[in-house]
Specification:
24% strand, globular, binds adenosine-5'-diphosphate, binds magnesium ion, T-fold, 35% helix, alpha+beta, 8-stranded antiparallel β-sheet
């Protein structure tokens, strides 16, 4: 009798243990004070506390890297990209290892991506940035930069003259040069943060930094994949990701999905739109596509490639993706045609019939 009682008790305890075993719940949060964009953290955790800890890690890392990669603002006690720019032609600047890392990766990508993405294009990008800011504030007086000024600025954009000393953790650029890490910083911050989360045991989280999406693992529910919306570049509802604004949905696990689009940042001069991705060959906005979406594992790669593939003409862009391996892309051309790399459609819900079971 006693044995049966103990057995019964044991069964009750075990059942109640399972009964109480916390099931994974879905949580979501976002913040808007880094990288000039919305960063959202979506995912599954056993408790609110566990999720809050994860979100806090994302927030702290993004806050720190936002300071490091800022080209417009100074921060107390931090040498950032602006500090490097302010010291052009003056002296090497001692910087955090993350800045060295970002610059080394950017140099390698410049080489690989046929020179399309160049973080030393700052002098040219600054001119466009200033005219765009003016033109947005004062649409009636919006103007194009002078071609001569762009050509002059382009003399100071040689990325090989960005001198990195890994030993002493310094960066030096010559007078007239200026770094702009806008094409890589968000992806890099997303990847660094995702690595830290994974190291600390996080398993089911999606980070989206202004459309730079990195999925860690899978959703912890009946779905096998995360659904990442790909915006229809013709949709006028710019910041909404509701269904009617989507071109498609990519189903992914453990991958990054990043889109670069001409609709992101632009201004209008004489009824023509001038966006923010500049082709070094023409010194004008790249003019092949409305948007490019990249699917690949590494978020830094995805961010750089979305910009690089936006600049390359379609034959070159397709050939680049096909030879890159483990990278897929989708282009929406200026004419509205959708072009895919060979392995892209299996990710796509509408254009490829992918399911999320
Ligand atoms: P977003 O920042 O809107 O997500 P991208 O990732 O495509 O878009 O990056 C665009 C930014 O990259 C621009 O705002 C500018 O700072 C920078 N940029 C533009 N053209 C180039 C280029 N050819 N090489 C390097 N950086 C560029
Ligand atoms: Mg980019």
């Amino acid at each position: 009798m006693k044995k049966i009682l103990i057995l019964l008790l044991a069964i009750i305890i075990i059942t109640s243990m399972f009964g109480c075993a916390p099931v994974m719940q879905q949580y979501q949060t976002e913040f808007i004070d880094t990288f000039d964009t919305v960063v959202s953290v979506i995912g599954y955790a056993r408790t609110q506390d566990e999720f809050t800890k994860t979100a806090q890690m994302v927030y702290e890392n993004f806050t720190f890297m936002n300071k490091l990669f800022d080209i417009y603002n100074d921060y107390d006690g931090v040498n950032n990209i602006k500090t490097i720019n302010d010291n052009a032609g003056v002296a090497p600047v001692v910087v955090d290892k993350l800045i060295i890392d970002l610059i080394m990766q950017a140099k390698a990508w410049h080489e690989q991506a046929n020179g399309t993405v160049n973080i030393a294009l700052g002098p040219v990008l600054k001119i466009w940035h200033d005219y765009r800011t003016e033109g947005i504030e004062n649409p009636a007086f919006a103007q194009l930069p002078e071609k001569d000024a762009l050509i002059e600025a382009a003399k100071f954009t040689d990325i090989d003259r960005v001198i990195v000393d890994e030993q002493s953790s310094t960066v030096y650029i010559e007078q007239g040069m200026r770094l702009d890490v806008g094409a890589i910083a968000k992806g890099f911050a997303t990847q660094v943060t995702a690595d830290l989360l994974e190291e600390s045991g996080v398993e089911h989280i999606l980070i989206s930094a202004g459309g730079n999406v990195k999925a860690i693992g899978q959703p912890a529910d009946e779905r096998s994949k995360w659904g990442v919306g790909i915006k229809d570049p013709d949709s006028t509802l710019n910041y909404s990701t509701s269904e009617q604004n989507l071109l498609d949905v990519a189903f992914v696990e453990n991958l990054s999905v990043v889109t670069s689009g001409s609709y992101e940042r632009y201004y209008i001069v004489n009824e023509f739109t001038y966006h923010h991705i500049i082709d070094e060959n023409t010194l004008f906005p790249a003019a092949h596509y409305k948007s490019v979406t990249v699917v690949t594992k590494d978020a830094t790669a995805a961010d750089v490639l979305s910009t690089a593939l936006f600049i390359m003409p379609i034959e070159q862009a397709l050939a680049f993706v096909e030879s890159a391996g483990n990278t897929e892309a989708l282009w929406v051309t200026l004419g509205g045609e959708v072009v895919f790399s060979s392995g892209m459609t299996p990710y796509l819900r509408d254009l490829g019939g992918a399911t999320n079971k």
